[in-house]
Amino acid sequence: MNDIGHYPYQVGIDAYGKGGFRFADMSHRGSLLCLPTGMHEWPVENTAQLSLSSLDPVLALSEQVDVLLIGLGGDITALGPDIRAALRDKKIIVEAVATGGAVRTYNILLGEKRAVAAALIAVDTVR
């Protein structure tokens, strides 16, 4: 990934909503990939844009990731079989839930020093 929209450390998320996220005393507008290489902007705005290619950065780091949390925004939808198969082939456990639940679980697993990544679609309102 390029350095535009990139924070070089993987950190917990302090808040979400209003179309973005807060972490490391900063505000990020838009969706977010939380990876062992840091926090990256993610050009996915809704579940229709969620694809195997949008998760390429996660697959590229598969040796450093045991669990991937996908925050689906406010839409709960099934992941495509190609996405599930690719993650399974890389031995990555995937959990796809609403963004709020993904953020909370990500923070817990990161705090436990687990090999976790998150792909989070930004939401406007917090439930």
UniProtKB/TrEMBL annotation:
CDD domains: Mth938-like
Pfam family, one: DUF498
InterPro entries recorded: MTH938-like_sf, NDUFAF3/AAMDC
Superkingdom of this protein's organism: Bacteria
SUPFAM superfamilies per UniProt: MTH938-like
Protein name: MTH938/NDUFAF3 family protein
Annotated source species: Devosia rhodophyticola
Lineage, uppermost ranks: Bacteria, Pseudomonadati, Pseudomonadota, Alphaproteobacteria, Hyphomicrobiales
